[in-house]
Amino acid sequence: MSTRPNILWLMTDEQRADSLGYTGAPWARTPHLDQLAQRGMCFAQAYTPSPVCVPARACLLTGRAASSIGVLNNHHVLALDDPQFLTWRMAAAGYQVATFGKQHYACRRRAFDLEGGQVLGERVGYYEYQVSVDPREAGVVRYDGGKSPWLLAGRYPGSAEDTPEMTNVRAALEWLRGRDPSRPFLLRVSFNAPHTPVVTPAPFDTLITPEAIDLPLDGPEMAYASATQRDYLCDYAGSHRLTPAQIRRARQCYYGQVAFVDHAFGQLLQAMGEMGALENTIIAYVSDHGCHLGDHGFFQKQSFWEASVRVPFFLAGPGIAQGVVETPVSIGSLLPTLLELAGVESPTGVQYPSLAAAYRGKKLEPAPVFSEVDYGLWSYRSGERCVMVRQGQWKLFLYHDPCDPDKCAGREDAVLFDLESDPDERHNLARHPAYAETVRTLVEAIDAWDRKRPIVPARINPTHVGRR
User: Fold this and answer.
1) Comparing C-alpha atoms, which of 141, 277, 264 is closest to residue 192?
2) How far from 72 is each of 75, 271, 387, 417, CA to CA, in Å?
3) Residue 450: in which H helix or E strand, if any?
4) Model-level pTM?
5) In order of start, what are the domains of the chain with their CATH numbers?
6) C-alpha angle 351/352/355, rounded to 5°?
7) What region does 466 belong to: left with phi over 0, alpha with psi -120 to 50, or beta?
8) Residue 45 and residue 389: Cα distance in Å, rounded?
9) pLDDT single digits (tens) 408-454
10) pLDDT of 407-418, one tens digit each?
């Protein structure tokens, strides 16, 4: 019998940090995940390596930054002929490695020995229901008028047990029952939820009162912080195309969908406990990125506002100290951390540090945290890398290739927030001469980060052009 810990990796897509009750959100209904988080170590300021699916997931699996693997948006593919997925290290160490649900990391080679489960199923597509639904009875909110007709809200056309999420739970449990009990496992259960289409099964779609969700209803009257927000993000999915009632219904379904995610993972954990599969098991929880729900003027992701770039991230289990870490970190550190906790050596080239010291109760040293994206999905500034750095109280993001630090302050595309005095990110300080030195210091941090690692040109997958 192996003494190495089992690892259960729970993952969601497009989940905001304020959607779980343990973060203090009074509208959240997530008792199972809250209890799990409170038993372990939570990172209150955890940032995605990229605020879109494919780059974020590829970074997680390789332990490398998006520009280092040439994947900066959803129509890029891993340009490496032999990517060193960190899951392979677990398999080489004797782990049984499987994942069920959403994969979406754009590579011709698999990161897991077994990849199964469902993403959306047959009843719902990204833009439309695939079965007959009464829109009024289901409380449907469609996004019409933009580049993509998103299905932002509605009731799932079936029971909770019929959903892809519960299908993935059942598939994971079946795999666990058939595994070799003499070897440890790395099992990921990866939901598409609460990513659009946000079609929430009853009774979760009406579980939360819309008026209880305290987020601003930002429309076109707000002062946009950057040209990209005005010209691209709000054009793509601006909240100005929706009524206040539609926005509230979309939020109700979103947070209700997270409540359903909590229910589904609760069912998984209960069943695993009953079969003894939680003994000596480390449980990790993370989402690839967050999303906007009308706050800052738009829906969806791709931004470096906290709603999109900050995500829930915690570990619990044997050897994990209890507590909350306020030091900003990247979720790219997840697998390097799990490797160290499992006693497995990381390969060379890993760029995100292990956080295992924090789980042993030691203080993390503050360091800059980075995120990056290419907005070229719809030919908007295609090939230009927009980069975020979070350092201390400051967050800066701007187009960076190339960038002269002396010319960055005052640029229309530069955004600087003081998260200590302005946690809601309403005041862009980048154009104020008084903060020119702060901008310069943060740009130099990005430059130093770039010098430490290779930058790989992106390679486009033509089958993904125009898809998110």
Assistant:
1) 264
2) 8, 38, 11, 23
3) helix 436-451
4) 0.95
5) 6-359 (3.40.720.10), 369-464 (3.30.1120.10)
6) 150
7) left
8) 13
9) 655 678 999 999 999 999 999 998 999 999 999 999 999 999 999 98
10) 665 567 899 999
